[in-house]
Specification:
This protein is an alpha/beta fold. It contains 14 helices and 12 strands. The strands form 2 sheets. Strands 5-2-1-6-7-8-11-12 form an 8-stranded mixed β-sheet, with helices on both faces. β11 (157-161), α5 and β12 form a beta-alpha-beta unit.
Length: 363
């Protein structure tokens, strides 16, 4: 019998993953506080679009006030796909409708497993990273993917237990998610989480302040330099905390750190990798924090760059560009300033830094 699956949070990621699981025959219920989105799915279905083709699917959909109906039909797997700041209340709500043996999967940015465990206990928490999935809920009932699938060359879904053992449930989740894209069970959830945080914290906030999508940011040398600096600082924090950081878009974390400190060979290696990644992107792709600014929503910046800065303070590792980026994103969020590529200079200024000089190769 197919497992009953709920997505607590049916924005871009929740709807895209839940919609494709539904298309594959899974028993899926989408839950979200966006009334027009849920109404559209109920009345007309969910349109999945973009780089993986176009499909119309009909998963079950519930408004928040309808979640209580699940007492008659509890769920076995609940994906929490909300913004990080909504994690606790969303977990509390859906936890009441878990079947015996049911568990919760954090399919979110940032690192929220501890928040979820505070509600349901560590034994009912699984983590899932969606690496470079790049999706956007651009209209009620419409979700599009804006990068090419990872396929065998790049693993998109990485599912792990908090204790690091490979269990039947994470293997089953990995198999389930292969109907969408490449997936694996990982013994290194925390290292994968930090790698994802490095990626998010080096691009999401930059999109928010510049107003640019992922492709245009990558093509700008000035913006590449800032993202490489952000990445290197975040890697330094993760290494100081003792994480075994996984490669970041195919680049060893030590290379990212070296590039941020002026190593020309490392810098050019990362630049080449970034520019090669443009081939997977579409013009419409935009990191989620950039999407939030466009939609007038609260961002997750405190849980991305803010988390890197907080952990950097704990570890004694400086994170000046992360702290500066948090400040500028909040100014944009409050509409005190307008997004502009020129705000990259403001981040450097607030950080008290100049763009790192790249060392010339030895003669």
């Amino acid at each position: 019998m197919a497992k009953k699956i709920a997505f607590m949070g049916a924005g871009a990621v929740g709807s895209y993953v839940g919609g494709h699981l539904s298309r594959a025959g899974a028993d899926v219920t989408l839950i979200d506080p966006w009334p027009e989105h849920i109404n559209t799915i109920k009345e007309n279905g969910l349109h999945l679009e973009g780089t993986q083709g176009e499909y119309l699917v009909h998963p079950k959909a519930l408004h928040l006030h309808e979640v209580q109906s699940l007492f008659k039909d509890p769920v076995e797997i609940a994906f929490v796909c909300t913004k990080s700041y909504d994690t606790v209340w969303a977990t509390t709500m859906i936890s009441q409708y878990l079947a015996p043996g049911g568990f919760i999967v954090s399919l979110q940015n940032s690192i929220n497993e501890e928040r979820i465990a505070g509600v349901v206990g560590w034994g009912r928490v699984v983590g899932c990273i969606a690496s470079s999935i790049s999706v956007n809920a651009y209209a009620p009932g419409h979700v599009t993917r804006t990068v090419q699938p990872g396929g065998p060359g790049y693993t998109v879904f990485r599912i792990g237990e908090v204790h690091g053992r490979i269990t039947p449930r994470v293997e089953q989740l990995a198999e389930m998610l292969t109907v969408i894209d490449s997936a694996k069970a990982t013994p290194n959830l925390w290292g994968e989480r930090w790698s994802k945080l490095v990626t998010n914290s080096s691009s999401n906030g930059v999109s928010a302040i510049t107003g640019l999508g992922g492709k245009d940011m990558t093509l700008s040398p000035e913006i590449r330099r800032l993202t490489i600096q952000l990445s290197g600082e975040a890697v330094a924090v993760g290494l100081a905390l003792g994480f075994t950081i996984e490669p970041i878009r195919g680049i060893a974390p030590e290379v990212a750190r070296a590039a941020a400190t002026g190593d020309r060979e490392a810098y050019e290696q990362i630049e080449a990798r970034m520019l090669a990644g443009v081939a997977r992107m579409t013009d419409e792709g935009r990191p989620s924090t950039g999407q939030d600014i466009v939609k007038g929503r609260r961002t997750e910046i405190d849980f991305l760059n803010g988390l890197v800065a907080e952990k950097g303070d704990e570890a004694g590792v400086p994170t000046p560009t992360h702290k500066a980026l948090v400040q500028v994103v909040k100014e944009v969020e409050r509409k005190e300033i307008e997004p502009s590529p020129s705000l990259v200079d403001r981040v450097w200024e607030l950080a008290g830094l100049r763009p790192v000089a790249i060392a010339q190769p030895a003669r």
